[in-house]
Amino acid sequence: MPDLFAGLPPIFYYLTTVFLGLCLGSFATALAWRLPRGVSMTAKARSACPSCGHDLSARDLVPLLSWIFLRGRCRYCRTPVGFRYPLMELATLALCLVFHVVFGMSLMTLCAFALAPALAAMVDIDFRYKILPDVLNLTVGLAGVAAIAAASVFAFDAPSHLVSMLGQGLGAAILYGGLAWGLRFLFLKLMRKEALGLGDVKFFAAAGVWLGLSPDALAAFLMLSGIFGVFIALVWRKATGETEFPFGPALIASFLAVLLWRGLYFVVI
Fold first, then answer.
1. Is residue 254 part of a domain?
2. Could you give the CA distance from residue 11 to residue 174 in angstroms, rounded to a whole number?
């Protein structure tokens, strides 16, 4: 595959990844705050302190550094700002760096970068509200479609490759989503218990676009989801005393593990 990012020293691309990762991390915190509250991402031009409502200036919004220099407090009302915001920014940055290291720097990797803020926000929202917003599931799926389209640019027969890979992605989305819906239906009918929420079912479908029709990928995704789910359930019950736990983080962890293990199936070698 032609390398459109060759010619400059590697440090340039790593610094670019760090910059993009921190900016996307800041965006992830905005997603995590606004989406559960039904606030549009375009409803207000500038972010504001949730405690005092004061508009935040550019110097208040520098990813990670603003939180450090302000010692974890709002500049205007001095209300403490929790660790979750810098942690989300760091998690988003870490994901971007991992994608860069594993996949190299390419158009497809830039599409993978779009996953980072969506997944970071999904984990935070699911832990706090036990929901996976539709718009974030859609973002994961559309980022996969964009990555397939980017990979097809380098194919010998680009239109044929695009149609073939989109067919695999769509087929996998139907397979993964249908399987998840079937599990949800069986648990509701046989055990009168909701094992998977509808947001989880939609995430299954979105993950399928990235993972494709490989039986190994599907088996690994299901197995790891169960393992991570049991671990999170035990920790959640110990920490909160609740038996119902958010399953989304387990799905996201297994999705990332399989994606990094298997790679981008739609890339032309």
1. yes
2. 40
